[in-house]
Amino acid sequence: MWFRSIIAGVACSLLATGALAEEKPYRVSLIGDAFDGRSWRTGVLIELAPGWKTYWRMPGEAGIPPEFTWTTSAPAGIRVAFPVPARHADQSGETVGYETEALFPVTVTPDAGTALDVSLDLFFAVCKDICIPASAQAAIALGPVMRDPLGSQRVEQASSAVPTPGTAVAAASVVLEAGRPVLRLELRERPEDIFVETSSAAYFRAPVFSAGGREARLAIDNLKDPAKLAGSTLLLTYRLNGVGLEQAVTLP
């Protein structure tokens, strides 16, 4: 659904125009270097030209999630967090991601030491009227003394948008409506939106709420046999009262 081949095909039309081949609508950098004595908090900042978007880890009907390839001067563990995204509708269909900019908080934990050089090779995609593949490199030198306090403040703000555990969904099931599979969710509270991830190729569209916000139905695409979802675990990410939450639910 969001394989590189899809993006590569779109890129062919771009090469014919050459419009954006020379003027990149994005800029990528690593910002922030707060150190707590064990780990650093840095972030991958993608700044976008007006009207452009980039994708979340589950990009929607089309697109590609960002791929982070890291190189460090010494052994270290690296964990990337994803702030709650937004849903968009454009010529490519329903997509999930970020406008204006995306800032992914990153935790870097070295095996030993208090200094580390970190390099990033990022493969991702950006979209406006068309979607194009993109790649960028960035690097940062991390040490025991903070040298980028403003960047660290921005990373801390972005971290507050990373979802924490939630309990808004009481139960989940897959039902057929007019011959089409639909994810039915019983809700304790009504989120503003719900994004669903699964290990299958199924895509869950925007929720339609009913029963005073106590129920949500999400039409499912790319699913020929609903029985294949039986017993599977879905990861739900949602925004409730402006706060990002996530919850794993297992289907019966």
Structural features, described:
There is one protein chain. With 252 residues, the chain is mainly β. The protein has helices at residues 4-17, 149-159; strands at residues 26-35, 40-48, 53-60, 67-72, 76-80, 86-90, 93-99, 101-110, 116-127, 131-142, 164-165, 169-177, 180-187, 193-197, 203-204, 208-210, 215-221, 233-240, 243-250. It folds into 2 domains: 4-159, Immunoglobulin-like (Sandwich); 164-250, Immunoglobulins (Immunoglobulin-like), CATH 2.60.40.10. It contains 2 helices and 19 strands. The model is unreliable at 1-21 (pLDDT under 50).
Q: Helices, strands, pairings?
A:
Blueprint: H1 4-17, E1 26-35, E2 40-48, E3 53-60, E4 67-72, E5 76-80, E6 86-90, E7 93-99, E8 101-110, E9 116-127, E10 131-142, H2 149-159, E11 164-165, E12 169-177, E13 180-187, E14 193-197, E15 203-204, E16 208-210, E17 215-221, E18 233-240, E19 243-250
Parallel strand pairs: 11-19
Antiparallel strand pairs: 1-2, 2-8, 3-7, 3-9, 4-9, 5-8, 6-7, 9-10, 12-13, 13-17, 14-18, 15-17, 16-17, 18-19
